Amino acid sequence: MSSGRENIIVGLDIGTTKICAIVGNLTEDGLDIVGIGTSPSKGLRKGVVINIEATVGAIRKAIEEAELMAGCEIKSVFAGIAGGHIKGFNSQGIIAIKNREVNADDLRRVIDAAKAIAIPMDREVIHILPQEFIIDDQDGIREPLGMSGVRLEAKVHIVTGAVASAQNIVKSCNRAGVDVADIVLEQLASSEAVLAADEKELGVALIDIGGGTTDIAIYVDGAIKHTSVLSLGGNHLTNDIAVGLRTPMAEAEKIKQAYGCCLTSMVGKTETIEVPSVGGREPRVLSRQLLAEILEPRVEEIFTLVNREIVKSGYEDLIASGIVLTGGTSILAGMPELAEQIFNLPVRRGSPQDIGGLIDVVNSPVYATGVGLVKYGSRNVEVKNFSRGQKDTFGSITKRMKEWFGEFF
Q1: Which distant-in-sequence residues (6+ apart) come within 8 Å of 93 by Cβ?
Q2: Class of domain 197-352 (CATH, top level)
């Protein structure tokens, strides 16, 4: 890395609609965002790489743009992972500590015990996230080191993903000329950027609505309790507009961003929009209410599926501080209002918080995951500051599983 910028951390949000590289500089005062590069993403579908060449090209373009703005060379990144293949579940491990103080080795053993479960060959552990430790029936312990007892239990949240999908992300980054310092679940990264500590304590559901996927993370008592990914997102809205208004996909995306509203009651009856036609036909002038009538049922469907997922998780009564919406699609007018109707909970949009530098540039839900990856990296840079070889890039992730329990302490 360039001199004077030793504390550079880069987050690479590999999304379905855009690939975004965000460069952070870790200073004594906190984290400053010093560079940002974005590129349209053509090689992904529903959060999963389907075209390596197109993805490599987009990553390279985003990285180059970020390097230019930050004035540094990017060697390694914290890459985000999403997609319908992601599955999260809770697990528990118990070990005996025989009337002595808990040490780091005990923590490693109890985490090993918690993750000693059968995982299919085609799946890989991405995260082991500690929720709480229990010593001799005393629960709610966050930091058990140095405490005495006979029995130590650990409750953890384990996130697994398809091996092939994770390998394709690593491969794409390597071919674009950067190493992968870590693969991070996207909604975990987004929650780093947009959720306040007191929200996590009180109980909150983060809904990150991207182009191809909707990612859900539920926090209760300061720890992550549930994660899931739905293969629905903003691209479905664009597709509905293209079909409903008979307009090209690129124009449908522009119309969605400029005039989209997912609550019909918020649109004036006299408002109109000009809609380009296909095949060189004349553009038409249509009512903006018609656009809202196309968007509302689809957004309602996404929120209903999310609500079903929250109910299925069993935590719907514990998210007292409500719902936080983030991701590019959450910018759509009427999103929080419609969500409040469906969830019966307070809803707010989440933008990146507690950062310095280019705040005005990244102050949008669009950059929540990218900024979150940088924040995640800044917290784990001491543990994870290693360079990656081309050969066994993914294999070395598994070797570091045991250290990952330290992420949240």
Answers
A1: 110, 111, 112, 113, 114, 115, 116, 153, 154, 156
A2: alpha beta
CATH among 3.40.50.2300, 2.40.50.320, 3.30.1490.110, 2.30.130.30 for 87-162? 3.30.1490.110
Overall size of the chain counted in residues: 409
CB neighbours of 181 closer than 8 A, spacing ≥ 6?
76, 77, 78, 377, 381, 384, 385, 386, 388
Phi, psi dihedrals of residue 28, rounded to the nearest 5°: -65, -30
Task: Kindly calculate the radius of gyration of the chain based on its CA atoms and give it in whole angstroms.
Answer: 22
pLDDT tens by residue, 311-330: 999 999 999 999 999 999 99
Tokens of 25: 């500089």
- What residue segments make up the domains of the chain, in order of their start? 8-83+163-191+353-395, 87-162, 197-352
Residues with pLDDT less than 50, the chain: 1-4, 383-403, 405-406, 408-409
Q: Do domains 87-162 and 197-352 have the same CATH topology?
A: no
In angstroms, the CA 222 to CA 203 distance is: 8
Quick: pLDDT tens for 279-312: 889 999 999 999 999 999 999 999 999 999 999 9
DSSP state of 364: S
Angle, helices 249-259/288-313, rounded to nearest 10 degrees: 80
Q: Please report which residue ranges of 125-182 form alpha helices under DSSP H.
A: 163-175
Please write the tens of the pLDDT for every residue from 108-153: 999 999 999 999 999 999 999 999 999 999 999 999 999 999 999 9
Alpha-carbon gap, residue 128 to 108, rounded angstroms? 12
- For 101, the enclosing helix (H) or strand (E) is strand 87-101
Task: Write down the pLDDT at residue 394.
Answer: 46
**73 phi, psi to nearest 5 deg:** -100, 130
How many whole angstroms from its chain centre is CA 81? 7
Q: Which two tokens stand for residue 224?
A: 């992550």
CA 27 from centre of chain = 24
